[in-house]
Amino acid sequence: NLQGKTALVTGSTSGIGLGLAAALAAAGARVILNGFGDVESAISHINRLGIAPGYHAADLSDPEQIGELMHYVEWEFGGADILVNNAGIQHVAKVEDFPVQKWDAILAVNLSSVFHTSRLALPGMRERGWGRIINVASVHGLVASQEKAAYVAAKHGVIGLTKTIALETARTPITCNAICPGWVLTPLVQQQIDQRIAAGVEPQQARNALLAEKQPSQEFVTPEQLGELALFLCSDAARQVRGAAWNMDGGWLAQ
Ligand code: NAD
């Protein structure tokens, strides 16, 4: 039960972030959403769970806007007890063709934002004597795939940062862990399926090929399943889970 706790989930207007926000709200947490796109339907999704969510439109590639987001959470909600660093972007290209701006943007959103939200959330967690930081990394935080240089580098970085924060908070009731999903069918992955469709592959076949290459279960992981994992990491039972990179990946990393 997370009643009385405040949870900030970055990048929570769609996909995994919205699923994690919904799981936390269903467990009674006050939830703050962030992200772009169809903000209204994300808000009404959480409203239907009986929680009126906060929302802030900070662009997480900008440290200054992250500062404003964390101020908002502090002033309006008394600070984040649960920080879920979920916002992430992808770009697929070979290293020698990788646009430099895309590299910078992916490092900023997928890695540096985790540093900024964490450094700004930790003092309040220490003061209140409880905290959970959950970083949505990826299997690509532990192994690589071709043509995902920036994403793989950023996600490996997130796992390193997770371990450092776990050590610095080891003697406190604050834990920091990473979760490492395999394929989840969200807009981020649909975009990669669409690229195959554009190259002439049938939609169903494009989807199946994507799974068959990497994910032995040949089923997508769901945001709901990841939500249950996040709830476990928030529980008292998970108090000694510290610095973990916990995969939920249909067997991807078992190969
Ligand atoms: P998504 O595209 O559905 O959602 C991304 C969210 O981040 C959206 O709410 C978007 O508005 C927000 N966002 C993007 N750029 C932002 C910015 N600059 N500032 C603030 N918000 C921003 O993607 P998803 O698949 O749900 O991905 C969520 C996280 O899960 C990412 O970190 C991703 O790397 C990770 N992940 C996804 C998969 C997968 O298979 N989908 C697998 C492993 C890890």
Question: In a nutshell, what does this entry contain?
Answer:
The protein is of the alpha/beta class. Helices cover 47% and strands 13% of the residues.
Report the total helices: 8
Ligands bound here? nicotinamide-adenine-dinucleotide
Order of helices and strands: EHEHEHEHEHEHHHE
Strand segment tally: 7
Q: Provide the gyration radius in Å.
A: 18 Å
- The overall pLDDT, averaged over residues, is 98
What do we call the CATH homologous superfamily of the largest domain?
Answer: NAD(P)-binding Rossmann-like Domain
Q: What percent of the residues sit in helical stretches (DSSP H or I)?
A: 40-55%
N-end to C-end Cα span? 36 Å
- What's the shape? globular
Outline the low-pLDDT stretches: none
- Percentage of residues in strands: 5-15%
Find the structural class using helix and strand composition: alpha/beta
The largest beta-sheet arranges its strands as: 3-2-1-4-5-6-7
The name of the CATH topology of the largest domain is: Rossmann fold
Question: So what's the CATH class of the largest domain?
Answer: Alpha Beta
Biggest sheet features:
7 strands, parallel
InterPro entries: 3-OHbutyrate_DH, NAD(P)-bd_dom_sf, Sc_DH/Rdtase_CS, SDR, SDR_fam
Protein name: 3-hydroxybutyrate dehydrogenase
Organism: Chania multitudinisentens RB-25
Family: Belongs to the short-chain dehydrogenases/reductases (SDR) family.
